[in-house]
Amino acid sequence: MPAKGKHRRPKSLSLSRGFAVAGTGGAALALPLIGAAGAHAAGAPAAAPAVTPAVAPQAPVALQAAPVAAVQAAPIVYTVVPGDYLSKIAAERHLSGGWEQLYADNREAVGVNPSLIHPGLKLNLGGPGEAAPAEAEAEAAPAPEADAKPAAQAAPKPVRERAEQAAPARREAAAEPQAEAPAAAPQSAGGFVAPVSGGISTQYKVAGAMWSSGYHTGVDFIAAMGTTVKAVGAGTVVSAGWSGSYGNEVVIRHADGKYSQYAHLSQLSVSSGQSVTAGQAIGLSGSTGNSTGPHLHFEIRTTPSYGSDMDPIAYLRSKGASL
Question: Is 295 known to be catalytic?
């Protein structure tokens, strides 16, 4: 028994010295060996600040995930502005599938002719563009930590840059009709102008079996595809859309009760009920409907309907237009 006691005592002393050395030489090494209870008792004030920064930055990332996913699921609605056409919108917004997919997603709103869109038309872009999630994340993400704010504030910067780059093009398209009006005004003392600058390819009342009435009810102006077509005088748009053999057409009522018609357009820039000024762009020339090639079919009528035509050139000249 005494021998066993002597054997145990030195071992106990050796362990005590080991803990004493660990406590004297480095408290950081002793705390993990002692366990959680010892760590809380001896080092709680020093350990708490070290743990907090490691965990806190992860919380905003988890919180941001749900709002961003919700925003990405919401579609973007785009409002058509003057000068827009489907391929242009698809290219500027970097839409997957191009204008074909954009038309397929909005066929009910656009109608049977994909070239027929007008200012104010709402188009569903099928989901958020590349810029939308960044804007939404900046608005929705919580910022409990000071170092999380710069990341949220930095996200919209590319969005603003893209928006600023796109805005001048849209402003130019919207301002294009107004920019042409001052140049056209001196041509007419009565405020009337020619619809396009090209000459006449087919005169009024030329006979032929190709026309249902037996003669040409207007004049054909030479106009390459995409030429800007202008309102000959101030008035109100009474119709703008598809009109059978005339393709895309615009009909405008003027103050004297006469109507001007512009047919075979490839694109419309006005809508029914809109007021226009002399020289304002109302669309682009094309070859829609019953047409053998790009040109502008132009009529002056006593009513908005087919069959009430009168000599368009004589009318424009009586209004002071230079042809």
Answer: yes
Question: What is the tally of structural domains in the chain?
Answer: 3
Q: Which of 254, 264, 295, 297 is catalytic?
A: 295
User: Could you list the residue range(s) of the whole structural domain that residue 90 is in?
Assistant: 74-174
Map tokens 């070290």 to a residue. Answer: 50
φ, ψ for residue 85 (rounded to 5)? Answer: -150, 160
Establish if 186 belongs to a structural domain: no
pLDDT in tens, 142-194: 444 444 444 444 445 554 555 555 555 555 544 444 444 434 334 444 589 99
Rounded Cα–Cα distance for residues 261 and 240 (Å): 10
Using one digit for the tens of pLDDT, what is the confidence trace for 248-257? Answer: 999 999 999 9
For residues 299 and 229, state if they share a domain: yes
297 DSSP β-pair partners: 220, 263
- Give the tens place of pLDDT for each residue, 221-234: 999 999 999 999 99
Hey, is 211 helix, strand or coil? Answer: coil
Q: Is residue 241 part of a domain?
A: yes
What CATH number is associated with residue 242?
A: 2.70.70.10
pTM, two decimals, is: 0.47
Residue 200 parent element (H or E): strand 200-202
Nearest to 225 by CA among 292, 286, 267: 286
CA atoms within 13 A on the CB side of 14: 6
3-state secondary structure of 215: strand
Strand partners, 219: 298
Q: What is the DSSP string of 23-76?
A: HHH-HHHHHHHH-HHHHHHHHHHHHHHHHHHHHTTHHHHHHHHHHHHHHHHS--
| pLDDT tens figures, 5-16 | 455 555 544 444
Residue type, 146: A
Contact 190, 234 (CB under 8 A): no
d(CA 35, CA 20): 16
